[in-house]
Structure formats: C-alpha cells, structure tokens
Give the backbone structure.
Amino acid sequence: ENRQVSYNGGLGIVTYSYDGDGRRVQKLESGVTTVYVYDVQGRLAADYKTDGATGAGGTSYLTADHLGSTRVITDSGGNVRARRDYLPFGEEIASSIGTRSGITGYGTVDNIRQRFTGQYRDTESGLDNFLARYHSGPQGRFMSAEPGGLGAKKQNPQSWNRYSYTLNRPLVGIDPNGLTTILVAVGTGNRPAATVTMYDRSGTVVSSGGKYMEFNGLASGTAGHDRSKEYADTPFGQYTLDFTRTGKAVDGGMETSRLAVRFGTGIIRIKGISGEVVIAGRDELAFHGGGTNAQLVPDPYALYQHLISTNGCVRLFNNDINTLIQAVITLPMDDPLDYIYIGDEATLNAMAEEKDTSGKYRNPELRVAIGLERKGEGVSNPFLIFRYMDALWEWLRTPPIEGYAFPR
C-alpha cells in the first residue's frame, strides 16, 4: 500500500507498522513503542507510550481555524498553553517571526500532535500523517503519489499532479473529515430518468465485487412534475443515509418492513437536510426496486423488473438496488456513506458553488464528483450522485412504453 515503514533522521531509525486497513497502529522510536487505537468508526481515539511519559497535566483544549488546524491550546481554566501559526501548506511559522515572541504561547514546547488541518505530525520527520499518505508542509505536497492516478479529471489539469495537496489551493481546498457521497443528477422530460453513482474520496466511481457503482434509474413521480407536491418527481437537495434493508418480501407484507411489493428486494432510506426537499416538507424518501402495477410489473422481485413511476422516490432494478446496498454496508468503518445529492445539472452546479459565511465551500464532496476539485487529505467517505438526465432513454420518457425493462 506504499506506506512509509521507517525514517532515519540521523538520531536513530524510527519504524512504523500498519493494520490491514492501512492505518498506522504502532511506532517504535529509541526503544519506546507508541500504540495507536481507533474507535468503531475508524477514527484515531488514543495513543499510548511504553515509557510512561505524561503530558503537561490536566486536559488540553484545542482551538482550530477554518481548516481544522490547531491554533491555540488552552487548559481547563482558559489559560493559553501554546499557540501555532502556519504557512499555506502547513509549515509552522517560527515564534521569532514578526511580533510572536512577545505573545504568550508562541515557542512553547508541548506534546500536542494534532497540527495542520488537525492531522498528527511526527516530530521525528515533521511529516503530517493523513492516513493514506504523508504530507510535507515545507514541500507543499504529499510524499507519495496518489495510487493509480485516482481523481484525475481532464477538466482540471491540476488534478493530474499525483503529489499535489488540494489542487494547490490549501487555503480553501480542505475537508478535514473527508466525506463519501452519493450523487444523483436528474433530467427533465415527461418521465425523468437518472443515473445513480457512488464516488470515493478522490471522485472515482466506487467498484464493489468487480462492478462499478453506477446505475440507471427512474425519478418520475405519480403526481406529476411539481416537485413541491407529495408523490411528484423526486425533489432536489442534499440528503443523508437513514437505513438500508434487503430481502424478498411477501406480497401484502407489513408496511413497517419497507419491503412490500412496491419496494421489491431492497430499499435505501434517505432523509433530506437541505434544498427544495426540505422546503417542500418531503424529507423522507428512498431508493428502491419493485413495482405495484401487476400488468406492467408481473414480478416485482425479478432481478430486472419493469421500471415504473414511484410516489416520489427513485426506482432502480432490484439487482442494482441490492448491489448498491451491499456496497454501502460493506464500506470501511472509517469511510462510510455520508451524503446523497439529488438534482439536475444546473442545480448540482449551483450547490457545488455554495459557500458559508467564512467563504468555505459547503459541499466539497460534490465539487470533487463533478471535477472542480480533488480530495487529497487521505481519508474520505463515499458519496452518491443522482443525476437527472435530459434526452436519455426514450423508452423511459415516452408512454405507453412505461415499464419497459432496459436490456442488459
């Protein structure tokens, strides 16, 4: 996995060990072993040293800037223990620069390792551990290439530099937590068709079981095209994952099972958190299979059943919804599905350009997916994009062919 296994800075060799997920679990330096422990979500929870050394005593509180970089460290009484400033790519500014030497906290030695964007900095090498790769602030780049050229987009030449950090935009191109997302882009027309795609942290389509997570579906509602109305076409906006369920339901089964004939063999329940989905009060929708029209869908549990309109959800072939669910539930604990974006091309582009009051982009994952930026921080979560497609599949747009199964 191209991980750094040792460092020799002239004061002895430091070695590093990793687990099967590529997370660093041990460091051996001058006979002292540091063990790193992760929580159930795959996040670093604690580290322990065998020399029994302790810190400054008491609890330290970290105050970060808009990038997540630790800037001020205080004790429980609010007293400043240390301060740090950084150059754009993370190199720490010396306390002798400017008037810092006269301000309490600058130049203070402490054992807080969360530095630039909140990542752990190794004192022996000065490198920041971004889990997937190590980053050098003085050099302004990662120390190893991005595997396989992940994230390279022809629309953005900067993305072809496999060592670059945040496309060389370190003041805005940062997502400290990393996010995995589903993007759903939707089109217009009589019966809106859509493509559901899951992307990894670099904007590359996720592959699971040898199959790419990109599927054709239908976002047509039974109540027409006014997405503000109940049962109309799938409303645009940002969603989060609620739950998933699979299994072959019995016709007329319990509604609470969410696997009646109209859901087929699987369902991904999603909840709206912003956009017209919230404004319209339609904040609980789903991706699912199935179909309730016995004439058009004689077998709602078939792998490739006929696709018909829903009550505002997104309908996929049963085979595809189950494949997608399996990909979602088998994602690494430190790389879970986070956001789902639904919209047409114009809406998705507008969402990608939204900024908060500090000038930071609200949806960096979406920007990655449509090629405006590339994640370089190491750990990110997959995401789904659901695109409404204009002029795609006449069989989906023109009655009376409703329910015609796309050939595979």
